[in-house]
Amino acid sequence: MECISLETVKTAILEVIKELEKQKEYFNDLDSPIGDSDHGDSIVATFSLVQKAVEDFNIDAGDIGSLFSCIGKTIIMGGGASMGPLYGTAFMDAGKAITGKKEADYGEFVSMWKAFVDGLQRRGNVKPGEKTMFDTIEPAIKVLAEQNEKGILLKDAIPLVIKAAEDGMNSTRDMLATRGRSSRLGERSLGHIDPGAASMNCLIGNFFKVVQKAL
Question: What is the 3-state secondary structure (H, E, C) of the chain?
């Protein structure tokens, strides 16, 4: 049985934070035509709050659920940009879905990510096709759940999940923005990848790559 350990999840989150920092200027550049050119600064600031909390998290005394809840609370208490409450709620909901588990089996891992998506959707009142981060994560986790239902091994499903996230991100290029500052641009928002979708792609891609290596 394929299982994901608490240590792997902790490593994956720290890898995500490192990669978000590396791509900060890219996210700012994506935000320049349709926003305030600061998405990279905002997403890095949000997750920099998380880094110390994750590094200090005691894996002997905690579990995956409490780690995700800790991340969510840290983001929410840190305030900041509008993405803070979205990510904070998503991580907290994911933590509740897998509370008490020091390692997750495939089904529990899927449930955790479905709860993440549900939390994001509920807090943001968002749906696919609105040119947001949801257009990256929703199809990716849908593929994850579908592969689990088909009996496909997680290590074989992960490349499909990563591709679905990337395809979802790229699909925002042809979407009309209907939320946030970019919605004011109308048709001028067409032709640009949503920066939030791009940073979510970074999160999904790097998290799942770490998990794949650990399997």
Answer: CCEEEHHHHHHHHHHHHHHHHHCHHHHHHHHCCCCCCCHHHHHHHHHHHHHHHHHCCCCCCCCHHHHHHHHHHHHHHHCCCCHHHHHHHHHHHHHHHCCCCCEEEHHHHHHHHHHHHHHHHHHHCCCCCCCCCHHHHHHHHHHHHHHHHCCCCHHHHHHHHHHHHHHHHHHHHHCCCCCCHHHHHHHHHCCCCCHHHHHHHHHHHHHHHHHHHHC
From CA 102, how far away is CA 188, in angstroms rounded? 47
Averaged pLDDT, 151-159: 98
DSSP string, 133-149: THHHHHHHHHHHHHHHH
**Per-residue model confidence as pLDDT tens digits over 157-172:** 999 999 999 999 999 9
The pLDDT score that the predictor gives to residue 189 is 62
* Domains: count for the chain: 1
Pick 190 or 196 by higher pLDDT.
Answer: 196
CATH at residue 207: 1.25.40.340
Asked if pLDDT for residue 133 goes beyond 70, the answer is: yes
Which residue segment(s) compose the domain that 8 sits in? 3-214
